[in-house]
Amino acid sequence: MVLDADARSIAARLDRLPVTRWHWMLIVVVGLGTFFDLYEVFLGGVLGAVLTEQWHLGTDGKSLVIASGFAGMFVGAIGLGVAADRFGRRRMFLVNLGLYSLLSLLTAFAPDLGAFLILRFLGGLALGAELTLVDTYVSEFMPRGGRGRYLAWAYTIGFCGVPVAAFLGGRFVAGRHLLIDGWRWLLVVGALGALIVWVLRGRLPESPRWLVAQGRTAEAQEIVARVEATADGPLPQVTADPDADAPAARAGVAEIFAGEYRRRTVMLWIFQVLQTVGYYGFGSLAPVVLHAKGFDVVQSLGYAAVSFIGYPVGSALSIPVIERVERKALIIGSALVMAAAGLVFGYGRATALIVVGGFVLTCASNVFSNAFHSYQAEIFPTGIRSSAISVAYSLSRATSAILPFVALHALQSLGAGVVFTGSAVVLVLLCLDVAVLGPRSTGRSLERAARPASVPTGRRPHTQDQ
């Protein structure tokens, strides 16, 4: 079935819009949600350092504290990510953040390690698809010329959660506050903050591109008309892109392996496994690595927090360049900087050198992160976009769950330098994967970037309506 002219024009109408105050409201609300996802991710390393002393954990115990949340995220990324293609982006936004708020609050009152690990797993499950939902939702609303830039703004807001987790950790872990262990307040803060954002997200509309893919064109038209009404002055004439036909409604997960999408899926799966080592490996292990270098817990969290300032700084630095440099090149260049800075952090002995190495690594990490979050959302069509990137992203969560068991034993027996040398090798392999298998996407409409190169303009690949 060929879509009618009104349906084909939805993408073109969204792409020709200027960025209005309404778009900025969307970016802020979405970005606040990523704040709590990233707060939760990096809280694992903080809790691993804190509970080692409080609950007298060995290496495996520390690994379980860090890995439990990631294991839940692995399951959640697949389940909620696939559900977003079937039931809608907005609905899953509300489900995941609401469940996380409740489970984080319950975790704060966990009586022992067993209960703590189970609740951390369930909280991770609830939050597992957050970032891939952000990538999908923002990319489907933002105009083509600024898609990557405005997604980077959302992540810049979100990455403020990383130093906040470390600074709050350093502030609260030293004792009890209002009769509660300090580390428990870190989870209470996450729960209450997520609840506030959950209320704000209730005002967000569904993605018009997703509605069109479900055959709900009238609803999509109404949402786009409301967004258009927020623009000042006359709008440019709509020029419908022949590539703007929506993919088939309710396309199955198997479609990510159909035709040339197989190559993109393989590239992204390899990428997600490898990027975990260089990206999440540092953030989740940095406090533990510093502790192993001889710093006490409070010092470790303080130095980690200074290094973690690089996350929002690097995210902000990506904003002026992300639309000027091809995504592939930006991913590769920033990954190589991460590898070099990781070696400085791993082998450094002087405090200043360690902190500078960590800061440069985190800055480069978020140029890298914003580039690949934009990239992965651009290379698959609407009907399978959330499924494709969520299934791939779940592999990074699975790797993150396994990584502490490998890295902490390696840290204990081989030292930080060897651990970060291995990380550098993995990042070089990642660069080769993207260079050889990754398509170009920067500056193209979402529909054109998602179309395999072998499908000429005006024709649709297997995943689209015929």
Give a quick rundown of the structure.
By secondary structure, the chain is mainly α.
Topology (elements, then pairings):
Blueprint: H1 5-16, H2 21-54, H3 59-87, H4 89-107, H5 113-127, H6 130-141, H7 147-159, H8 161-172, E1 176-177, E2 180-181, H9 182-201, H10 208-213, H11 217-228, H12 261-278, H13 280-292, H14 297-308, H15 310-318, H16 327-347, H17 351-378, H18 382-414, H19 416-437, H20 446-450
Report what the structure shows.
The structure is a single chain. By secondary structure, the protein is an all-alpha fold. It has one domain (10-232, 247-450): Growth Hormone, Chain: A (Up-down Bundle), CATH 1.20.1250.20. Helices cover 74% and strands 1% of the residues. The protein contains 20 helices and two strands. It has a two-stranded antiparallel ribbon with strand order 1-2. A hairpin with a 2-residue loop joins strand 1 (176-177) and strand 2 (180-181). Helix 4 (89-107) runs antiparallel to helix 9. The chain is globular and about 65 Å long. The termini are close together.
Key structural traits:
Growth Hormone, Chain: A; 466 residues; two-stranded antiparallel ribbon; 20 helices; mainly alpha
Mind telling me the CATH class? Mainly Alpha
The percent range for helix content is over 70%
**What's the oligomerization state?**
single chain
Radius of gyration using CA atoms only: 22 Å
What is the average per-residue confidence, as pLDDT, rounded to a whole number?
Answer: 82
